[in-house]
Amino acid sequence: MSSPAPVAVVPPLGLLPLARTAVDRGSDRRVAADLFEQIRTNPATRVMYMAGGKALINSTEVVLGPVADIGFGDVPIYLGRTLADAQEPAGTDVVLVTLAQEDPLLETDGARWASLREVAVLLGELDAALFVEAAAISNWHAAHTHCPRCGAATVPEQGGWVRRCPEDNSQHFPRTDPAVIVAITDPQDRILLGSAAAWKGNRYSTLAGFVEPGESLEAAVIREVAEESGLTVHSPQYLGSQPWPFPCSLMLGFTARTEDTATTPDGVEISDVRWFTREELGEAVASGEITIASGISIARNLIERWYGGPIEEPELEAQA
């Protein structure tokens, strides 16, 4: 029995750029030991190529090519079947093939290698869904080649969604790290933005942090904000989520309120925090005084939800 088509549910934060449901991931088909043999000879099967975190892109689409004579390579990953007619008919099987390096022979008809960050806002629903899924699962394979129990090299199974240790027979599954990200407002309805110590330039964004073991999402919101800014917040409200495969996070967007406006950045992760009115933020971004999170991030969506619409940015000067 095939997996049911996902129901489109729009969260309060709206349709987020990387939260797409255009692929039936086929968990029922992964268990077949001969899955790749079954679909390799089907002329309708399509292959997505990745190398060094980049996928082959043609204009605004992920390149989905036919199966090559060499097949699927050493570690193929079954991405699933398309749910709707797009560049391929609904029901098309798609397999991820990871290359050791970019292959210029594949760069036909204007195709190029690009990262998800570069092209996410250009991609349609199917292409974004495939790229996000492919990036996340390939990152896991790259970082989890050996058994954490005994150190033996593990073997991919179940369509590339499980790695089994041949020594102790333990199974290891892809991980996802939940992280909360928060738009904080004060009694004047100003928003708090912080600048991370690791960022270059004068970049500001909403505060965020990973959920710790044994911690609820709401508790993580309160703890992270206190640690990074010195503020005590209340009334955390969940607004939506999206995957962030850099390398394996799930960003959970919240709002929270505070009556305390005196801030103290931790000086380790956060170098500065500032309160902004809508007018102050609009002017600071438009003038180039600060930059804010990109359009594919949940942070940008949180900021613009508070702001009331898109925030205009200065056009980049043409490079010499």
From TrEMBL:
<dbReference type="InterPro" id="IPR015375">
    <property type="entry name" value="NADH_PPase-like_N"/>
</dbReference>
<keyword id="KW-0460">Magnesium</keyword>
<keyword id="KW-0479">Metal-binding</keyword>
<dbReference type="GO" id="GO:0006742">
    <property type="term" value="P:NADP+ catabolic process"/>
</dbReference>
<comment type="similarity">
    <text>Belongs to the Nudix hydrolase family. NudC subfamily.</text>
</comment>
<dbReference type="InterPro" id="IPR049734">
    <property type="entry name" value="NudC-like_C"/>
</dbReference>
<dbReference type="InterPro" id="IPR020084">
    <property type="entry name" value="NUDIX_hydrolase_CS"/>
</dbReference>
<dbReference type="InterPro" id="IPR015797">
    <property type="entry name" value="NUDIX_hydrolase-like_dom_sf"/>
</dbReference>
<dbReference type="GO" id="GO:0035529">
    <property type="term" value="F:NADH pyrophosphatase activity"/>
</dbReference>
<dbReference type="GO" id="GO:0019677">
    <property type="term" value="P:NAD+ catabolic process"/>
</dbReference>
<dbReference type="InterPro" id="IPR015376">
    <property type="entry name" value="Znr_NADH_PPase"/>
</dbReference>
<dbReference type="GO" id="GO:0005829">
    <property type="term" value="C:cytosol"/>
</dbReference>
<dbReference type="Pfam" id="PF09297">
    <property type="entry name" value="Zn_ribbon_NUD"/>
</dbReference>
<keyword id="KW-0520">NAD</keyword>
<protein>
    <recommendedName>
        <fullName>NAD(+) diphosphatase</fullName>
        <ecNumber>3.6.1.22</ecNumber>
    </recommendedName>
</protein>
<keyword id="KW-0378">Hydrolase</keyword>
<dbReference type="Pfam" id="PF00293">
    <property type="entry name" value="NUDIX"/>
</dbReference>
<dbReference type="InterPro" id="IPR050241">
    <property type="entry name" value="NAD-cap_RNA_hydrolase_NudC"/>
</dbReference>
<dbReference type="GO" id="GO:0046872">
    <property type="term" value="F:metal ion binding"/>
</dbReference>
<dbReference type="Pfam" id="PF09296">
    <property type="entry name" value="NUDIX-like"/>
</dbReference>
<dbReference type="InterPro" id="IPR000086">
    <property type="entry name" value="NUDIX_hydrolase_dom"/>
</dbReference>
<feature type="domain" description="Nudix hydrolase">
    <location>
        <begin position="174"/>
        <end position="298"/>
    </location>
</feature>
